[in-house]
Structure formats: C-alpha cells, structure tokens
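Continuing the series of single-chain predictions for the mutant panel. This is the parent chain; the variants come on the following pages.
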Amino acid sequence: MARFSTTFNAQDHDTTQSDYSELPSGIYKLEIEASDVVPTKAGTGTILKTTMSVIEPEQYKGRKLFSTFNLENQNPVAQEIGQKAFASLCRAIGVSSVEDSEDLHFHAFTAKIGLGKAQNGYPARAEVKRYYFEDEGNVPEPAIDAVQPTPAAAPANDNRQAAARPAAAAASAGGARKNPWSK
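Parent structure:
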C-alpha cells in the first residue's frame, strides 16, 4: 500500500473528458510546443518527433497533432521524404537553419490537415498534407472543410477497437482472412 502525503479529493477537480476524435480536414494555424530527437527503431537513423498544438480555428484550439520526420535513415528514399517534409516545415515557420529542435517551438504556421492512410490495423490519423509559406503570399485563413469523410462507427475514444471489428466479423463469418502479420 502507498499512502498519499495529503488526501486527494476528486470532487475538487474538473473531470471533463475529451472525445479524442481526429481533427477534421481543413486549414489550421499551428505551433510546435514540444519536440524530441530519437534514434530510429533499428538504431541506424534519427527521427524528429513533434507535438503540434492548434491555434486556430478557435473551436479546435489546444488540440494536438503528432508528426515525425525521418531525418537520417539507411533507406535513401525514406530519408529524402523526411528531409523534404522537414524543410517544408522550417520554411513555413520561417526558420532557415536548425541546431536544436527547440528552435522550432512556438512559431505559428499554417498547414492543410487531412486523414492519412490506415496502417497496421490502426485507423487513419490526422496528418499534415501541405504547409503554406508566407514568402509565397498565398496563406489561406484557417477553416474546416465543408464535407468531412465519415469514419466507421466506433466509440469516439477507442479507434483501435473499431479497426479490429471488420477482421473479427470476417473471422466469425467463417472467412479465411489472414492478418498481414500472420504466417
């Protein structure tokens, strides 16, 4: 048993819960609030992980978007894609050279957000589709797209269960569907 130093009273705290649904597609004003440079899973490269926070539109202010940039990789195509995306981010926030990931923090930038592809049994996640550059003079105002794709019905806070349902339904219906990781 572990004793608290003081009595915690849950009634003294806000217990409002978020629905954790993905950000809808649209144009957002964002800023990076946290970052970390880590080795790749294989330990042979470098990844920049960022936590972006929505500034506008107001109804999504404070929502988070997570993005990674593959800066160094043994696969030259993966490295090129990662470096190109990172260069676009740097241009969007007005930074031309970076020595420390904190140099990226709290610079507002505008980006188009949309759903990516579902991967490895997980549903599609919101991701940056395009960065807008101040030096081109075509930065749109933040706005949510009028027509939103309709995701599969699922509890708003448990996307992994929704992704597993089709496979479970196929298996229970007698289908011989194999998961990609099955041998």
